[in-house]
Amino acid sequence: MGLQCGIVGLPNVGKSTLFNCLSNAKAQAANFPFCTIEPNVGTITVPDERLTKLEQMVKPQRVVPTTIEIVDIAGLVKGASKGEGLGNKFLANIRDTDAIIHVLRCFDDPNVVHVDGSVNPVRDKEIIDIELQFKDLESVDKKIQKVDKLGRAGDKDSKKATEVLLVYKEHLEKGLNARTAPVAEEDKRHIADLALLTAKPVLYVCNVDEASAKSGNAYVELVKAAVANENAEVLIITAAIEAEIASLETFEEREMFLSDIGLEEPGVNKLIKSAYRLLSLQTYFTAGEKEVRAWTIHKGDTAPQAAGVIHTDFEKGFIRAEVIHYADFVQYGSESACRDNGKLSVEGKEYIVQDGDLMHFRFNV
C-alpha cells in the first residue's frame, strides 16, 4: 500500500538503534549528532499471532505476513524550519510519510551525549513540535493568501477555506499541533493538499533504561502528562534491550531472554503493531493449502476494495465474498465446519471488512 511511518527525534535519542532492531537495513548509529543523513527505509513484517494460529490449523505450503514501511529520518535541531543543520531535508522527509513515530530520550547516561546538555523529554518534544509548527504556519499562510483573493471575488468555497485556515493559523500560533485544532472532519479537506506536518497521527516512544523497561519512570510520566490532550499512544521501549534481543539467533533464546527480564514480547513488536494501527490499517486473511496470507487494508474498506488489494481484476469483477470471522474459524477448526454451523456468510459490495476476517472472493472479468 506504500504507507510509511517516519521515526523522528533529536540526535542521540535511540532512533537509529530502534530502526536497526526493526529492520534488516543497518543505519550508522554513531554517538554524535546527524548520525543518519539519508533516510533509511525498512520494510517491516507485522507480528500477528493469528497468522501463526492459522498456519498451525491449515498447514499451508507457505505463509505470507503483512508489512509496513518505517523510515529513519535524520535527527533534528533547533532552527530546522529555517534550514539549520539538515532542517529542510528533514522536514521534506517527514512530509513524505503518513504518520510519525516520535522517539524521546527518557534515560540518564553520562556516556551518551545529549545535544542540549541535559535529559528533558518534554523540552525535546517541544523543540521538534515548534519546528514543525513553524513550517506548517508557513504553508497555511501561503494558502490563505491564495484562497482569500478568490473568496473576496465571491467564491463561496474559498471563503469557507479561509475560515478553516484561519482556525489552523490561530491554533499553530498558540504553539499547538494541527491535529488538535477544533475543525470539523468534513472541513479538513481544505488542508489536505498541504500535508501539514503536525496534522499527521503520532505515536510517542519513550526510550528508557533497562530498570524502567517494564513500568517506565518519572520521565515517562512527564511525557504522558504533556501529550494527554493529543489522543496519542505512548509506548515504553528500551532500545538497548531491543538490540540485545535482535542479536539473539533463535526464537527460543529470545523467549528465554524476555522471560529473564520479565517481558512478554519484544518492545519492537508492540511498536510495529502500534504503527500499523496508527496508519488506520487492518488485516484480513486468505487461507488454503498452498498459502495462508495476511492482506493489508484500510479500516472501513468494503469487500470489493479488499479484493482489489489482491488484484485489480478482483475489484472490477467482484460478485460476492465468502466470509468467516477469525474467532469462528478457530472455534470450529475448518471452513467446512464453519459452513455446516452457519458461520460462513456470503457478503455483497456493501460489506465492511472486519479485522481478522477470512475471505474468499468470487469475481468475473
Shape: flat
Total number of strands: 12
Oligomer: single chain
- Average pLDDT for all residues: 86
**Separation, N- and C-terminal Cα atoms:** 23 Å
Q: What can you tell me about this protein's structure?
A:
Helices cover 39% and strands 19% of the residues. Strand 8 (281-287) and strand 9 (291-298) form a beta hairpin. It contains 13 helices and twelve strands. The longest helix is centred in the middle third of the chain and has 32 residues, at 121-152. A six-stranded mixed beta sheet has the order 2-4-1-5-6-7, sandwiched between helices. A three-stranded mixed beta sheet has the order 3-9-8, with helices on both faces. Strands 11-10-12 form a three-stranded antiparallel beta sheet. Mean pLDDT is 86; it is low at 24-37. Helix 1 (15-22) runs parallel beside helix 7 and helix 4 packs antiparallel against helix 5 (156-173). The protein has 365 residues and is of the alpha/beta class. The radius of gyration is 23 Å and the shape is flat. 37% of the residues are buried.
